[in-house]
Amino acid sequence: MTASGSIIQATLLFPMRKLLASFVFVAVILAAFTARPVLAQRRVTLTPTLTPSPILTPTPTPLVAKPDITQKTQETIGPLESLLKEQKLGPVWPMNPIKYAIRGAVASGVPANTIVLLLLLPAIAGIIAAARHLIGLRGFGIFLPAALSVVFVATGPVVGIALFLIIVIVSTLTRLILRKLKLKLQYLPRMALILWIVSLSVLGVLFLAPVIGRPELTNVSIFAVLILALLAEDFIRVQLGKSFKTAINLTSETVILALVSFIFLTLKPFQQFALLNPEIFLGLVFAFDFIIGRYVGLRVMEMWRFRKMITA
After folding, report:
1. Neighbours of 131 (CB within 10 A)
2. Whether pLDDT at 156 is above 60
3. Are 244 and 14 in contact (CB under 8 A)?
4. So what's the pLDDT on residue 73?
5. Extents of the domains making up the chain
6. End-to-end CA distance of the chain
7. pTM to 2 decimals?
8. CA dihedral 256, 288, 70, 62 (to 10 degrees)
């Protein structure tokens, strides 16, 4: 191999190492917020007997899964409907029109968890907008971090980040291979080819789920995979249009915003307040968005960047 070939290979491997290091760091930080399944424990009482006791064979104990607010199950809908039944309402106007509308929708068959998610999405969008205007985290807009946070709620953040990491690595390697082979393909056919390979990779991960001991991978919905593939597409588009470093920064900021939104989406007090006080909740979100929109000062990251000029 020539010296130029070695330099090109090292240049290609360095961004991949930065990509792996960034997402492994985020996954480690996220492990502190991840709820692990709790194994049911059994108590074994020993009684003195004269006959030899039979050999006890270990039996697998069921895993207690965390309720998923994105799924229409009794574990998620039951507590929310109980809250609605226990709340005492006054007259419809002027303070309770949305409360009565929610109860009518639930009575007609609309899942309570869907209503909660729809109430929380404006708040999540406001949090993402505040992170952009007050802190300086850009990410890929508002829709993608919000949708990614819902994916984390559905799949679990660790599994979601692992799938996204696999999709990004596979798509980036495919793009590098196509460029090395000097195949002249238009943008959309090239993205379709990358998506084809990504689909095969995700299928391979699902096939290996029982082998690697991660049964939660078998419950991954197509919605989650599509959102992760959409994020990978934006990653490749920014990488082609600007630079690999910019794509890494925007992707990392998008994942951080999605993790913060995931924490708010899974907070029980946050869910209960939005469901029981929708008028007040939506009014507060509207006022919060209006105040953030009027802010024209420096962002936190800009203050840190120009701290020497500010303190001078």
Report:
1. 22
2. yes
3. no
4. 64
5. 95-311
6. 53
7. 0.70
8. 60
